[in-house]
Amino acid sequence: MILAVANQKGGVGKTTTSINLGAYLTRLGRSVLVVDCDPQANATTALGIDRRRVEGRSLYEVLTGELAFEQIVLRTAIDGLDLAPSSPTLAGAEVELVEAGAFETRFRELIRPTALRWDYTLLDCPPSLGVLTANALVAADGVIVPVQCEYLALEGLAQLMRTIELVRRRANPGLRVAGLVLTMYDSRTNLSQQVAEEVRTHFPDTFQVAIPRTIRLGEAPSFGQTILEYDPASRGAAAYNALAEELVARLEGA
Amino acid sequence: MILAVANQKGGVGKTTTSINLGAYLTRLGRSVLVVDCDPQANATTALGIDRRRVEGRSLYEVLTGELAFEQIVLRTAIDGLDLAPSSPTLAGAEVELVEAGAFETRFRELIRPTALRWDYTLLDCPPSLGVLTANALVAADGVIVPVQCEYLALEGLAQLMRTIELVRRRANPGLRVAGLVLTMYDSRTNLSQQVAEEVRTHFPDTFQVAIPRTIRLGEAPSFGQTILEYDPASRGAAAYNALAEELVARLEGA
Ligand SMILES: Nc1ncnc2c1ncn2[C@@H]1O[C@H](COP(=O)(O)OP(=O)(O)OP(=O)(O)O)[C@@H](O)[C@H]1O
Ligand SMILES: Nc1ncnc2c1ncn2[C@@H]1O[C@H](COP(=O)(O)OP(=O)(O)OP(=O)(O)O)[C@@H](O)[C@H]1O
Ligand SMILES: [Mg+2]
Ligand SMILES: [Mg+2]
Question: Which of the 8 DSSP states describes residue A213?
Fold first, then answer.
């Protein structure tokens, strides 16, 4: 099962969700591959991989045809959680893919056959609806949409859903929304509560669990660790554990 | 003076800085134009402009040549603060500009001559180093870089500075970094303090004032207001007022 973790709004928790949901899916005995599809390479860093190790052996080299996808996959500190790393060179792929014509099906051709060896593959998307995200949507079976509990984050949801619908009609009939997940929820503020209510009303696919805003989730990446390693007793860890359980129940049938 | 407000990291406060710094620059008697260069059109919404009013009359129509830049400029609720709005169609411009060849100089040709009628023009960039941000950097005199006080936000700064340097050498010799501004600073957490210290050490151009994380700054956009209108007595308002003063002192000579 290949899931794109996507939302063009920036800073809503795509990377944090990809790596921490991934970690807790392994606790449920599933094998997981995280594919860093963002030139910022935040998932690569947050999983403790040194950028120097990745030079010349990232997603970019797969898209240019220099390397096969399985040649870039790395193990992480978590048993059962592997990573296909990114690097800043990936930004160049956007222009190259457009100039080469059939630019939306590259991931599906080059990545999907190998990625299906893991139970779950999570494609961490960049904050845009450009070529890299389009590729991820065409390659995926489902989309997980992190939604920050902020007003401006509501704005782009309709556009994102339209884009998913467009990809389903044009290139990937099997694509569906696996679910929306509320992130950085702060129960003390009206804003968070109003946004959460609005999202739950308009999008019935929203997961029950909301990820709270906690400083521990912000600290973990500075140690190159997921919340599972950094502070498994924290509220953030409990929330991602609950999200993993809810996802598996929803996608595999309770 | 045309300033790009840019950082490819998502959700760091580019839009919040563009509109609120813009508002407080008008308090200092400067005329200000905000150009929304992001298909998410968050600056357009946060300044209280109804999306329906913008259909067919946004930055996209200027880039395709259908409208002249001055035809899309709107007044906002703040005297002296005008807006050139965006719309989701702008996402299509990325692919079209690449296919058309000379894709980095469009803004400079179509926007810069008119934009110079205002004392300050702020180009609110999307969270990427793609075609729209490249255009903004080629059209601008300087770059304001909002830096969120989070670990992952540090990651991309070196890449951003390299990109600015590349644009300076290749297309815009006058481009310089006007300054970095720390955003969402939470004085209660070690993480914020560590990140702020790290940024100030590595980047001497960092403004003295740090923008605090305050709920009022997050609430204002839901009313289509800047912090100047929503809560001028708040800590967020005071910080953006101080930033406007510091910017003017730095750029115009104290
Ligand atoms: N629940 C949370 N509580 C506190 N901090 C969080 C939480 N989730 C994410 N963060 C922090 O907020 C910032 C944004 O999160 P993240 O980078 O995961 O978002 P993103 O959507 O992947 O961003 P981008 O759009 O740049 O790819 C990061 O610094 C991260 O550490
Ligand atoms: N100082 C602050 N305190 C609290 N909330 C803030 C602050 N600055 C911005 N925000 C909120 O954080 C979110 C991200 O800010 P904003 O949208 O301005 O960032 P951005 O860099 O423009 O995002 P994008 O990368 O999507 O364009 C918004 O919901 C905004 O209201
Ligand atoms: Mg990310
Ligand atoms: Mg923005």
Answer: P
In the 8-state DSSP scheme, what is residue A211? Answer: P
The answer to whether B92 contacts chain A (CB < 8 Å) is no
Q: What secondary structure letter does DSSP report for B67?
A: S
Rounded distance, CA A16 to CA A20, Å? 6
State the angle between helix axes of A235-252 and A14-27 in degrees (0 to 180), rounded to the nearest 10: 70
**B83 contact partners, CB below 8 Å, separation of at least 6:** B33, B34, B35, B36, B43, B44, B47, B49, B73, B74, B75, B76
Order of strands across the sheet that contains B32-36: B74-75, B81-84, B32-36, B120-124, B2-5, B142-148, B176-183
Q: Which atom of ligand 2 is nearest to the CA of B212?
A: 1
Pick from B224, B206, B212: nearest CA to B184? B212
Which residues, chain by chain, have CB under 5 Å from ion ligand 4?
B 14-15, 42
* pLDDT confidence band for B156 (50 / 70 / 90): very high
Residue A162, pLDDT > 90, answer yes
Place of tokens 């501004």: B181
Residue B172: both structure tokens together: 């815009």
Q: Is residue A180 helix, strand or coil?
A: strand
Place of tokens 């000579």: B253
Are the beta carbons of B67 and B61 closer than 8 angstroms? yes
* Mean pLDDT of the residues in chain A: 96
CA distance A46 to A38: 13
Amino acid code (one letter) for A54 = V
Tell the residue number behind the tokens 């400029």, with chain if given.
Answer: B73
| Residue B204 DSSP symbol | T
* Residue B67 CA, distance from chain mean position: 23
- The strands making up A120-124's β-sheet, listed across from edge to edge, are A74-75, A81-84, A32-36, A120-124, A2-5, A142-148, A176-183
Predicted pLDDT of residue A236: 98
Which of A38, A8, A23, A65 shows the shortest CA–CA distance to A227?
A23
Mutate-to-test residue for ligand 1 from B9, B38, B152, B182, highest number of ligand atoms within 8 A of CB: B152
Q: Amino acid letter at A219? A: E
Name the residue facing A150 among B98, B148, B218 (closest C-beta). Answer: B218
pLDDT of residue B224: 97
